[in-house]
Amino acid sequence: MKSILNNTRILRLSKFYLIVMIINFSTSCSFTSDNAVNLAYDLEAAAKTLKSQKIGSEFVINFAPIDSEAPFTILIFSENGVTFNELIEKGLDSLLVEELFPQLSYIDLKNRATSVVYQNGTISFTSYYRRFVDVNTTQIINGKGDTDIFVKTIGVGPGNFSDEVLLIELQ
Length: 171
What we know:
By secondary structure, this protein is of the alpha+beta class. It has two domains: 1-30; 33-170, no CATH class. The chain has helices at 2-30, 35-50, 84-89, 94-106; strands spanning 58-63, 71-76, 115-119, 122-126, 133-134, 139-144, 147-158, 164-170. A hairpin with a 5-residue loop joins strand 7 (147-158) and strand 8. The longest helix is centred in the N-terminal third of the chain and has 29 residues, at 2-30. Residues 24-31 have low confidence and may be disordered.
């Protein structure tokens, strides 16, 4: 009888610790972010400010990548997608495009409007920004460390999740 009680007590403690571990894991995962998500939140803040201003207005985002020591490349693709040669024509180094393009092909991002941040040989991506802003052509920003990015409104377009979104260019 004593053995059964000890086993039951151990089982209850094990369940308790398992529940605590699941809660901790869930909480830690919900607060993790990546470069693309951070950029999307910055674009959301820009859109909220620029929405009430005239076309041609600018907003400065201070993009702070997760690894402040490594260079990064931001790509925001339009609905038209992008080809290997277009990335080179837009000024990306051909070696970078060779390293980046297979990852884009693997997850088929080159044919959809999305934002990608490439840093340390890996990509992070999201389409969350499209709730607020969109682009007509692929936008590319290269930087290292905290980098100011100018967001300029160029018009208003149809939204995927709302009636309309701001069309922007990054500088």
